[in-house]
Amino acid sequence: MKCYWQPLVLVFDNMYQESHLAPYAAHSASSVGRRFVETPSASRTEFQRDRDRIIHSTAFRRLEYKTQVFVNHEGDLFRTRLTHSLEVAQIARSIARNLRLNEDLVEAISLAHDLGHTPFGHAGQDALNHCMKQYGGFEHNLQSLRVVDALEERYGAFDGLNLMFETREGILKHCSLKNAQQLGEIGHRFIQKKQPTLEAQLANLADEIAYNNHDIDDGLRSGLLTEAQLAEVDFYARHRREVVLAYPDINGRRAIHETVRRMINALIVDLIQTSQECIAQAQPSSSDDVRNANALIVFSEPMYAEAALLKRFLRENLYRHYQVSRMTSKARRIITELFEAFMAEPILLPPDYQVENSGVGKQARQVADYIAGMTDRYAMREHRRLFSVGEI
Ligand code: MG
């Protein structure tokens, strides 16, 4: 792979990576680099810098008030996009250290993976995608990349955060072939059907481990799920029985937490062991070998089957619960009405989002950027400001 990033001094970064990382991990010395050349840091690795840039971004702070499953005002203890992203980073880093992968890179990808999410979770993204149908659509993965490549305004020399190629590649988890063809180098792997770095593969599965388990916890906390229902999920029931064996008198929230933490641990241990076996078999000696191999960060077959049953249970019993559906429906109306109002009268937009004489497609993308950047409560307030006579 072409390297257009020529480091001047990389003593710290090299020393750290040589001593800590496996040869198949992502090393910044063999990175495709940044879009705009920068002087390397004397005290941080390049991927540490990426992680730090993400934490200091505006989009990262907004995650605190964006829905994961439950809308922010529904309760203080439910996961938000921010706490979800922190849990993904924690799980991914634990696994990365075991596999001698690049913890800084996996942390950067994990913290950034949901930056492009709209308010109101998947309901918001589906509504915005529908609104944007004739203007190229809206996809939260692509929007996360757009946030770090273009929308953040923090540096004098460039738009966006100017992250390393491998961080950007990890953020772009999925991508349609049509979009991939328009993205240049970052889209090539989707066209060539190649794998991303092991760190990107890992962040993707850490995301799944995090949301499957915290949605069980939040579902039970909200009362929308019951432990009696969960008895039908063998993965949950088995670990629940283990908890009772260890602590016969346990009940309530403590019993749920003991169960969920065992489930998370089982998934992590399985992922580490199976991935170690796959890596040992494929023997990749560089990131390029990783790209040309099959996916190497994988669960065992039985664990995939258990995770699939868990996902199906959540889909049928939580994500389609009538109370969640009511919020989903409200979210769809808010997003759609905001979009239609701004498109009909762009003068209602804040000046930064108004684009004069540039065509309806560009205006639509600006409206989508504005709406996607909103937190749940900002979207609700903005909707009231536009549609309720009494609001200013
Ligand atoms: Mg996520």
Descriptive keywords:
single chain, mainly alpha, Hypothetical protein af1432, 19 helices
Global geometry: globular
From the N-terminal CA to the C-terminal CA, the straight-line distance is 55 Å
CATH level 1 class label of the largest domain: Mainly Alpha
Structural class: mainly alpha
Sheet having the most strands: none
Q: How would you characterize the overall build of this protein?
A:
The chain has 392 residues and is mainly alpha-helical. It folds into two domains: 44-324, Hypothetical protein af1432, CATH 1.10.3210.10; 325-387, no CATH class. Helices cover 62% and strands 0% of the residues. The chain is built from 19 helices and no strands. The chain has helices at residues 11-20, 46-55, 58-62, 81-99, 103-112, 121-131, 140-151, 165-171, 177-182, 188-192, 198-222, 227-230, 234-246, 252-282, 287-292, 301-319, 322-344, 360-373, 376-387. Magnesium ion (MG) binds next to loops.
Write the layout of secondary structure elements.
Blueprint (H helix, E strand, L loop, with lengths): L10 H10 L25 H10 L2 H5 L18 H19 L3 H10 L8 H11 L8 H12 L13 H7 L5 H6 L5 H5 L5 H25 L4 H4 L3 H13 L5 H31 L4 H6 L8 H19 L2 H23 L15 H14 L2 H12 L5
Helix pairs in contact: 2-5, 4-5, 4-11, 4-14, 5-8, 5-11, 6-17, 8-11, 11-14, 11-16, 13-14, 17-18, 17-19
